[in-house]
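tool_call: predict_structure(chain=1)
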Amino acid sequence: MRKEDCFYLGKVVSKYSFKGEVLVKLDTDNPEIYENMESVFVSMGNNLVPFFIDRCRLHKSNLLRIDFEEVKDEASADKILGLELYLPLSLLPPLTGNKFYFHEVIGFTLMDKLHGNIGIIKAVNDNASQELFEVEKEGKELLIPVNDNFIKEVDRKNQVIHIETPEGLVDLYLN
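tool_result:
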């Protein structure tokens, strides 16, 4: 399995018991849908290694308490502390309406109400406090905030996101 074919589920943040159980901080709005998983991929170096689960359950808000088949003591748990967990993209629940996963809109056209076609989405930068569409048009890079107030329609069939940006935002890049 390649990382490109998976989505980031979360990160092992601490040990829970001396029997090797760990706590995983989930990166999701719906942690309950991951409560009864059978396996995950753990990122070890450049590889995704399958780990099978004996038992997993929610532990407080967005933490998942996992008892892996392969991890049965503190020393084994120490080895996976800080590692990232992934699942295949096929396990993502489908989104509808104006909700979307960042990976699914790469290559979509961004169509602004005032400026028309403002380019193709090359990436979504989610490393800052505000997520940004990284858009390319005629060799220029535009950074457009991913904001529910700007997004008017996500047209998956035609791969277009219709937006209405504040006055002057697009002009900063195109003039």
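agent: The chain has two domains: 3-90, 102-174. Proceeding to next step.
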